[in-house]
Each structure stands twice: as structure tokens, then as C-alpha cells.
Amino acid sequence: MKKYSTIGLALAALMAAAPLSADTFNNLFRVMSPRGDCQIRRPGQEAFEPVIKGKAYPFGSLLKCGKDDSQMVVAFSESDAVRILANSMVAAELDREADNRRIISLKHGDINVRLNVLNTNNSAIVETPVGSCVSMVGNARMSLASTPTENTLEIHAEAACQIRFAGPQFVIPELKNGTAISISTATDNSQTRIQDLMGDYRIFVNKGLELNPAPAESEEGEVLLPVAMSSQSTVKIWREKAPVGGRLIVSVLATGPDGKGRESYAFAVGRNNVVTRSNVFDLPALPEDETPAAAEATDDANLFAAPTDAVGGDDAAAAAPAAEAPAEKKEDSWDDLLM
Description:
By secondary structure, this protein is mainly beta. Helices cover 8% and strands 45% of the residues. The protein has a 22-stranded mixed β-sheet that branches.
């Protein structure tokens, strides 16, 4: 709590030195502590330009930091900010249909986010190509790496952090301080791999009983299946259009830290029949570039076959590389950057 008070005083001192009108943050954000190659492209502009320290810019702008030690802090209010690190790009957007909610849209690279403990009305959220932090308070580190075929997001929850993350067919109700997760999704959305990097939490996976279910854990008995996660456990989701009718078929496999299957099932989105297989052990190995056979449906019985192959078994567990602790990197404190 003392840390937040200190940061708040730093921001207050800055605003006093360069005051803005009371409703400035309804339409603008401010760039602070730029270092190195920091640029912005404002709405309606084709070219990037160097940012100016302390200047207010309109939402709809695209910000980027160059190589080496380039970085800048973007303040969305007197207590909400994001630090954009080297080789990173972020869009600062405003959702006018949702009470001017601020959107931090991570395009690629690394950011540190700090949202005020009073952000309970979700006035600021973080969006990425693999899903969104639909609500967040506290501090978190996020990293997005992209290839032509896949986007991978890592989230490390830090001080006083509480994040609710939602993506296609899944929701993570709560990531708290000391937890970390990696989420990889194919660019064509055909596959998602969710790996627990640190800590214990739950993932809720859509069971397909509704065409567009709300990602609410309170509906777990009807719509979502809870999966308990621990370090190095994994959930994989495959998506494929049915050859007849084009209905989306979804297959789900959850494995434990040892690589052995714990839960698998399949469903057709919008149909109310689900085939599950619990407590699956010693499943045959499946190459990483191979997806399970599509779930099979019949008009008469509306049956769906669970994945017949899955990553698992003792060999898969032995081959799985041990998680490496992230290298320590000393960074400037929020207090220093916000002054």
C-alpha cells in the first residue's frame, strides 16, 4: 500500500508542475520519461515522430520504442500507467461505447502495466492477439512474441496484482501476485496452448453448450469446465470446422506437470452434447505439428469423439525441458520514471 502512495505522490507532483484540465484524461494520455528511440504516430498521420516528454497525445495513437535501452512511460490517469520497453509497440485506444474505457493494445514486445487498485470498474484493460485482460488491478509484466504462424503471450503477475483473462473458449478468473502463464495461439486460431509457468490457479474452458457463452466462472456447472492448474501443467485447445455444415468443432486436452493426460473432451459449438474422458493416463505421444482427429458428429445421435491421441506419457514428461527462472534485470522504479 505504501508503494502505491509513493507512486501517487510522484504523479501528483508531475501534474502540479504541468497541470492539465480536470477532464484531460478523458481524451488524452501523457508520455513521460522517454529514453532512447521513442516514437508516436498520431491518428490520421502516416509517419511516426519522436515523442516529447510531458506532452499529452490523443487516443488512437500508436507508440513504439526502438532497440537497446529505449523505453517510455504512458500515463492514462493520475494513477494508471504502462511502461513500454525496447523493441515494443503499443496502441493507446479509447472505447467510447464502454464509458471511455482505456485500452492498452499490445502489438508486440514487452510492457510493464500498473493499474490503480480502484480500477474495479475496468476503466482500463489490456488487449492482445491471444486474448484480453478484461479486468486488472496492480502490477504485471507482459511479453508478446509473434511469428508468421503463432502469437505467444507471457503474463507475470506482480505486486497487488489481480487479473481476469479471457480468450477463445477459455477464461482465467484470477491471476494473482506470484503467478505466471504462457498462452500461444495460432494466427489462424486453429490451436491454443496454455501453460502454467508459476503458481496455482484455475482455467475455465468452454463446454460448447452455448454458441457465444459469457466467460463467467459462476456458470461453470453449465457452460464452463474448471481445470486446476499447477506449475508446468498445460491445456491445449484445437479448433476445426466440420466438413459438413461448417460448425466449429473444439477438442480440449488438459495435462499435468508430468505430461500425462488428466481430462479430454470434444464438442461442437452450439450443440448440447459433450464427450469427455477423465483421468486419462499413459497416452501415446503426438508430434507437436500434428492435431488430433476432428471430433466426429452424426445427425441422429449428435455424438462427438474425444481426441484419440494426445501428448503424454512418461517419455513426454522426461523430454519436457525444465522451466528456467527468468534472468534478473534491474529496472528503474516507477517513482523514478514518473518524475
